[in-house]
Amino acid sequence: MTTKQQIVDDQAAHPPFGTNLTYPMSAYTRVSQTSGTSGQAIRWLDTPASWNWMVECWATVFERSGVTAEDRIFFAFSFGPFLGFWTGFNAGERVGALCMPGGGMSTLARIQAIIGNAVTVVCCTPTYAIHMGQVAAENHIDLGKSSVRAIIVAGEPGAAVPATRATIEGYWAGAKVWDHHGMTEIGPVTYQCPKNDAILHVIEEHYIAEIIDPDTLQPLPPGVQGELVLTNLGRHGSPLLRYRTG
User: Fold this and answer.
1) How far apart are CA 140 and CA 56, in angstroms?
2) Using H for helix, E for strand and C for coil, what is the string for the chain?
3) Per-residue pLDDT for the chain (246 aa), expressed as one digit of tens each?
């Protein structure tokens, strides 16, 4: 199996990008960096083909969340080196939606842009969805009167917590929260079940997923909690085989 520590060690020994690269450096066009919340930040490179594969995964997230070409998507995201919603933005274009970047704006300016442009879908982290709700309330703005019908969150586990989900939907009355998760080094992994808010489905057409006992590393039967191990099937520029996600 492959572990994050192996990647960290490889990049430390062979800075700045390590040796897990399929092609010469001239083939790569995108660089991303993890937030480093669980340790040393790592850098990740993508070729156009690998990036396109991630965009396809994100398009699946949108489609399973009911997003169509009729929607207007606002990305309340800094657009820094963290992978975050970069691929989501390209995927929004792919599904035909009108896409609006929200980098370099204050929270109030973002709220005003969402309302002024009749945005129907907002992409952000769970905590930022709550923060926008708080700022709107402080400025006597009722987000329930906006056109937003869906909030797609990622980057944190907040939407999986019923109280957090309820708080977000309370501020954005009439909008439904859709959860999703991914990892910079592996790609966009899951989408929320359309029939059960508490379940995330792995995008199995793009990943081989295994559930193992983290101590014995043996496979576990269905219904037993364990560690998710992933092999991505399209990020050929910097592949990961049997990656222990932790």
Assistant:
1) 39
2) CECHHHHHHHHHHCCCCCCCCCCCHHHCCEEEECCCCCCCCCEEEECHHHHHHHHHHHHHHHHHCCCCCCCEEEECCCCCCCCCCHHHHHHHHHCCCEEEECCCCCHHHHHHHHHHCCCCEEEECHHHHHHHHHHHHHCCCCHHHCCCCEEEECCCCHHHCHHHHHHHHHHCCCCEEECCCEECCCEECEEECCCCCCCEEECCCCEEEEEECCCCCCECCCCCCCEEEEEECCCCCCCCCCEECC
3) 999 999 999 999 999 999 999 999 999 999 999 877 667 889 999 999 999 999 999 999 999 999 999 999 999 999 999 898 999 999 999 999 999 999 999 999 999 999 999 999 999 999 999 999 999 999 999 999 999 999 999 988 888 889 999 999 999 999 999 999 999 999 999 999 999 998 999 999 999 999 999 999 999 999 999 999 999 999 999 999 999 999
Matching residue, tokens 């309340």: 76
Residue with tokens 């995964």: 57
